[in-house]
Amino acid sequence: MKIFKNTSISKSFKNSVLAIGNFDGVHIGHKKVLREAYKKAKKTKRKFGLLTFEPVPAMFFNKKIINHRLDLRSQKILNLKKEKLDFIIFQNFNKKFSKLSYQDFIYKVLHKKISCKFLYVSKNFKFGRKRKGDVSKLKKYEKKHFYKTIVTTPLTKKKKTVSSTIIRKLLKRGKLRKANYLLDRNWEVIGKVIKGSQRGRKIGFPTCNILMKKYVIPKFGVYAVKVKINRVLKRGIANVGYRPTFNGKKLLLEVNIFGIKKNLYNKVINVVFNKFIRPEKKFKNLIELKNQIKKDIKLAK
In the chain, how many domains are there? Predict the structure, then answer.
């Protein structure tokens, strides 16, 4: 799978079947679209590609949106590799690109640079300056620019369209099992371990602390997790929140990894969320906190 940093792609990848979208989380709805597009590429003997955007447009237009993403670029690449793509284009969504008219997007990007022949989009797809471009505009220019627009039927579960927005809402409500089902895998956070106050170590439960950065913030509380460290998988418990017992001011993901006591500062670890155990709570004292952590560990194991 070839990865392009912009729409200036090699000639051998032109005349392709192309899907466009954010594909945040690469969930089961996305996979339905990608598998339909892959079948078309195979049938017409063309390359199969994806055009996506970095940063996510919603975060570009609203700087107040910080914690939003279901996955990072590196995770998206790994998940998309499983969908038999020949190439991915990560278009930098910057001020200049955001000012591109819908006509210029169709002519300069889709026609001149990518030269796609089949274009897979959702019915709600919007593009171009002030989001003036839509499916009807794409269809209007099909013959002129030699491509065919295919509007995908969304995947629904219990009469609701599967979307990244719904998965974010489920995570915020602590509905981890449902979120993981729609993702078709367990939700995962990747981050570098930073030095904390070491309170966990002092009470017998050392933790690896990670900043959530651009990730959506799940419901505050304790989770059963698995942690990947240098290809080794360990079980553990994690707390997402502000640590109210200690009057914490910084939002952290704290992970107690079973069987590991050495510090992992500056190591990059993957935290895989398996089960929501309980909401975050302020305890009266350290003894009460320690007793609860022991109960949490039993539930996680």
Answer: 2
Tokens representing 27?
């969930």
Give the range of the structural domain holding residue 197, as residue numbers without chain letter.
187-300
- Are 155 and 195 members of one domain? no
Q: What is the pLDDT of residues 259-282, one digit of tens each?
A: 887 889 999 999 999 999 999 999
Is the overall model pTM greater than 0.90, yes or no? yes
Write the secondary structure of 252-273 as one string of H (helix), E (strand) and C (coil). Answer: EEEEEECCCCCCCCCCEEEEEE
The number of CA neighbours under 13 Å toward the Cβ of 237 is 20
Report d(CA 91, CA 244) in Å as an integer.
41
Amino acid occupying residue 97: F
Question: Assign residue 168 a region: left if phi > 0, alpha if psi is -120 to 50, beta otherwise?
Answer: alpha
Neighbours of 33 (CB within 10 A): 23
> In the chain, which ranges are continuous DSSP H helix?
28-44, 57-61, 73-81, 95-98, 102-104, 135-140, 142-145, 164-172, 176-183, 199-202, 286-300
